[in-house]
Amino acid sequence: MASQLVRELPADRAYANTRARVITLLGPSTVVAGIIWAIVQPYRLTLLHPHGQGFWWLVVEPPLLVALAGIAFAFVVAPGLIEDLEAHGDA
Questions:
Q1: 77-85, Cβ contacts within 8 angstroms, sequence gap of 24 or more
Q2: What is the pLDDT of residues 14-63, one digit of tens each?
Q3: Is pLDDT of 73 > 80?
Q4: What are the two backbone dihedrals, phi and then psi, of residue 72, each rounded to the nearest 5 degrees?
Q5: How far apart are CA 46 and CA 58, in angstroms?
Q6: CA distance 69 to 60
Q7: Which among 13, 2, 3 is positioned nearest to 79, based on CA atoms?
Q8: 4-32 core/surface letters (b: 16 or more CB in 10 A; e: else)
């Protein structure tokens, strides 16, 4: 049965290149590092005890910023870097 609405999805790319694997792991490992930092040093998270703290003190918290940077790297920066590596054939 043929249908124009159904199409085959490409399989996930298997990265044979070590550099591409490292780039794809940088974002998630940064997020994990931020979460571990928040667990190891919970006193840095002023959201847990916000008494007398201003808005910016509550919003800008180092472990959360590290986790957000990892997410941004994984979804914004890494795909472009991997495309560039594949385009140049990792010469």
A1: 77/27, 78/23, 78/24, 78/26, 78/27, 81/23, 82/15, 82/20, 82/23, 82/24, 85/17, 85/19, 85/20, 85/23
A2: 555 788 899 999 999 999 999 999 889 887 776 666 677 777 776 778 88
A3: yes
A4: -65, -40
A5: 6
A6: 12
A7: 13
A8: eeeeeeeeeeeeeeeebeebbeebeebbe
